[in-house]
């Protein structure tokens, strides 16, 4: 088979906006020795042969005879039969593992929390893409010229000065129906159980890394480091009353996080103040939105990233949320606090670095599907 990007390389490809591929006339052809040597030469000279897809390239092969030692390439053997749809052809001379097949391959290398974070990304409306300096400059030039078109729903989030951020908005790449079908047909394959377990902490469609982190910290069980607030739902659409419509000038409202289950009114949490959250809303719109929801009996809490950034701030925020919900928040044992510290540390990772395989791969680990 032709070169198949997998693991970290597939992940970075899937995060690459289609506008970036348009900037490249061609990529090195890895089906030929000349293309492989070109990758090595470009890497030695500091160039990026595949843009933000970093080296070493992770490639999926069907046999150990297809592997060879190189600082520029890491090979992963999949000896079993590959079902249709698990590998996608591209227009650029190579193939790539599908989103779910990529996550399955990474499941043996990442923690469960990291897999959950990636599921939030691919089942959500956002992706994080960190371009090289050259790509950023080219994209920024198109943005200033007003000719960076939206492609397949992909569009960049800009800061208040119109500068490119690392956040891109796009439609979800995976649905729950697709996820459930995938895990059912891959039963018995290494990593599926961990993938299923990670998905239990995905509470809806996130629009930013901040929303995903907040949902995990507040919604995951206390044993896994969260606060255990449930039911929790991301980006819930609420039909507004006549009074609320007059206040907000809208018929419906989609709220960032919706929390119910307590004796008090349902709580709406709005994630605020980050360039990773849809591009800085106007204060007047936020005020009208909050008042409209409060007129319907909802409690509204505006949350900033620093309010859940460490143990002390998270504890204060959890107590505030429990009070608004009318629920009791029991003190955590030292064991539960240790789990919380681990989760906070994992969630503090630079989102772009999620999925990186930092340690040396297990020696030619072979992934075989058990029938």
Please provide a written account of the structure:
- With 371 residues, the protein is an alpha/beta fold.
- α1 (7-15) runs antiparallel to α4.
- 37% of the residues lie in helices and 17% in strands.
- A 4-stranded mixed beta sheet has the order 9-10-11-12, sandwiched between helices.
- β11 (267-272), α11 (283-295) and β12 (299-304) form a beta-alpha-beta unit.
- The protein has 2 domains: 4-195 and 355-367, no CATH class; 204-345, VSR Endonuclease (Endonuclease, Chain A).
- Mean pLDDT is 89; it is low at 275-280 and 360-371.
- The chain is globular.
- The protein has helices at 7-15, 18-23, 33-44, 99-106, 112-122, 133-145, 176-185, 192-199, 209-219, 242-248, 283-295, 311-325, 334-347, and strands at residues 4-5, 57-61, 73-78, 87-89, 95-97, 126-128, 155-158, 164-169, 232-239, 252-259, 267-272, 299-304, 366-367.
SSE layout and pairing:
Blueprint: E1 4-5, H1 7-15, H2 18-23, H3 33-44, E2 57-61, E3 73-78, E4 87-89, E5 95-97, H4 99-106, H5 112-122, E6 126-128, H6 133-145, E7 155-158, E8 164-169, H7 176-185, H8 192-199, H9 209-219, E9 232-239, H10 242-248, E10 252-259, E11 267-272, H11 283-295, E12 299-304, H12 311-325, H13 334-347, E13 366-367
Helix pairs in contact: 1-4, 5-8, 10-11
